[in-house]
Amino acid sequence: MLCCFVRVDSELVRCVHCGQSLVSPDVADRIRARCRIAGSHQTEGVPKNLPESRMPGTGSWRVVMFTPGLQLGGAELWVRTMITEMDSARIKWQAVVLAHSHTLINEKLLRPIAARTRVTAPYATHGQPEFAGLIERFPTRRDAAAAALAGADIVVCWAIGGVLEELLQDFKGPVVAVSHGVCRWTKADMLRQMEGGATHTVAVGARAASVCPNPATTKVIFNGVNPLRCEPKRSRETMRAEWGYGQDETIIVGYVGRFGVEKNPTAAAVAVANLPARYRAVLVGEAANSTLEAETHRLVAAIAGPRAKVCPATEEVGDVYGAIDVLVMASPAEGCSLTVIEAWLAGVPLVSTPVGIIGDLESRFGQIVFPIPIDPTSEELARAVREAAHAGRSSEVVQRARRIAYEHLTAKRMTDNWADFLEGVGKEHYAINGHHKTPQVSIVVPAWNEAERIEKSLRSILAQSYQDFELIVVNDGSTDNTAEIALQVLAGRPQTRVISKLNGGTGSALNLGFERAQGKYLTWWSADCWVYPEWLEQLKDCLDHHPEIVMAYGDWESFDQTSGITQTQHVAEFDKALLLNECYIGPCWLFRRTAKELAGRYLEEPCEDYDMHLKLAEIGPFRHVPHVLGVWRNHPLNLTTRLSKDPKLAHWSSQAQRIRTLHRQRLAQHN
């Protein structure tokens, strides 16, 4: 198996696939040599043979990618690299789902992806081509996802928070949401993806991780680029002549990427306009639509006149990097820019704002860009460009950046890191060697600003005498470190997870938690209370021995935090008529999943438990377990206390009566 070696510096060349290094002062910029891992890698452009689907743990993991579309952007290039460069002996890309029919599709991205895996999508709209033979079209995105998910083990997704729940349907495997940015939109989308079913988060850098709901548990995997992409195929002289900048003394300042306001592409033109005449600008890329494209051309012409050119996007970016002298990236926010990585691999001096992974890497290795501030002035841009052009490609800054990129930011390094991560996620989720085990009991713990109390609650649950359960903590938009404490307590514990969402109240958190639950029996527990070790065992035994009942419930204790007094609450035997007049069941109970599915969702306002108990009572009888199983804590901040004492919440005091009335009316209609 042949592979490519690419020069890293004056003495070192490295295989772009296996990492093998050779030291030779006389070696050419590119040579062909035998890879020391013969047969395990292939060069770009050679289709990989996909293995037959295998059960998890016995071969490659079957993974589906959800992406909004395939425009020519950094995240979409990441999708292509993931599909085309991944080791198929470890990860089999079963399908790519294009979730939004209205997003444009770049055929140059689509073709290599479709050559390696199945691509499904809803029927195209707005006059888009159908790409017959490349995309399998379905009536809805739900249908497109269902076709892709059959037999899948893992889902990877990005930028589809609003529709993720619809796409996943009944998929029960792990779902990995990816953060490619650091803006408010990315933060909101990551939260929506967690609410929609994502179980894990990955970010392309530390800053991109900071916008994830649980930054502490977010895996950071840098983006990567195949170095062959950055190698020029045409000479520097040819490219410069095509641009009309053939003079040797001309200094060309470049921009490569999307023409969007958020990218600040005109910064290169601004710099040139404030520098001597021998400086020229070339902007290579495309906009999301023709209006933005025309506006970019107009702005560049207005800023720098004939000293700046706008050129269409090209896959041959190596030709561009070989012909320019400086690259300017003045974006105010980035996750892990592929253009930045390409410039480093190509050995181009880079003028950049301190965004994305630049800060991460400079703190470890030293200066790797010629810096400009966020929203730089024209003078700051001109000064940095002049400095970068004077330093040139042989400068210490540029060579350091190139070595770092070859060590940490190649496509091979990225896909290997992803394969390691996905294998770990799959093994943890399916608890193999090879077989998934559904827990008998699912416990949901909704939590809002419970940093002071949640640890005791969770540790009491983890200490149960019956251990075949999953524990789902739903962080309901807490403004304190509730989620971080929960993650610390649950660290390393299988069948546990923390989900974060916008604040919506207890009922909203319960609905999300139970949507994710897989157990045969279901319950929830308050984050500010605690249970005794026999809590689950007693209630589950009751349900197991009495198949006619839908719910088992036990006695409990109330603890007044202010007075320190504890009182035992012995609950009455089940009486449907009594339940219609009094919410007496208490907090210690367990019901059947089948009954919950018939009863439906929780009420998303106070008295959600009482409403659910009444709905369950219409389905079947309950049974009392005469044992004290848990402690309900009464403190100034819990909802029950606030409802009883806060006059601003007094309008909720009749809620229980309203629920009783509704259930009586429903019973009367049935009778």
What do you see in this structure?
It contains 24 helices and 27 strands. By secondary structure, the chain is α/β, with parallel strands linked by helices. The strands form four sheets. Strands 19, 20, 21, 22, 23, 24, 25, 26 and 27 form a nine-stranded mixed β-sheet that branches. It has an eight-stranded parallel β-sheet with strand order 8-7-6-5-9-10-11-12, sandwiched between helices. Helix 12 (358-365) links the parallel strand 17 and strand 18 (370-371). The chain is elongated and about 95 Å long. It starts with a strand and ends with a helix. Residues 1-58 and 648-652 have low confidence and may be disordered.
Rg, rounded, reads 30 Å
Termini gap: 77 Å
Number of helical elements: 24
Sheet of most strands: 9 strands, mixed
- The shape, in one word, is elongated
Helix content: 25-40%
Q: Which class of secondary structure composition applies to the elements?
A: alpha/beta
Number-wise, the strands total 27
